[in-house]
Design brief:
Elements (H helix, E strand, L loop, with lengths): L4 E5 L3 H13 L3 E6 L2 H11 L3 E5 L7 H11 L5 E5 L4 H10 L3 E4 L4 H14 L4
Parallel strand pairs: 1-2, 1-3, 3-4, 4-5
Helix pairs in contact: 2-3
Length: about 130
């Protein structure tokens, strides 16, 4: 499995730390982190990550809007939503916005690895 460059977007420092640790354990590199959707949109072009993990509920710009904005400028972006919302409609909204998969909080290494693998199955060049 190839190492990925990952941008983590979440307003919770604890979540960023946990996701960073899991990604590094899986052999991936953290390209950068952002705590708002607006920063994620601004940083995406500079960081050019292979994959983005995107929280849904954040200040400034929510993750669904940020996903739409990133994909409008970078149609090939691969974004995986990370959400504590078990609500079906939120997940549907995220996928309709262009998310390639999602991870429900609380998550662990296995859930993160499975979500990445599903994206890799759909996008073999990853």
């Amino acid at each position: 499995m190839n190492s990925l460059s990952v941008m983590i977007v979440d307003d919770s420092a604890t979540t960023v730390q946990k996701l960073s640790s899991i990604m590094e354990t899986l052999g991936h590199r953290i390209a950068g982190t952002c705590d708002t959707g607006k920063k994620a949109f601004e940083e995406y072009s500079r960081l050019e990550p292979d994959l983005v993990t995107m929280d849904i509920t954040m200040p400034d710009m929510d993750g669904i809007t940020a996903t739409r904005e990133i994909l409008s400028a970078h149609p090939d972006a691969l974004i995986v939503m990370v959400t504590s919302h078990g609500q079906r409609q939120v997940v549907i909204d995220a996928v309709e916005a262009g998310a390639k998969n999602y991870i429900l909080k609380p998550f662990n290494r296995t859930k993160v690895e499975e979500a990445i693998e599903k994206v890799r199955e759909k996008y073999p060049s990853l």
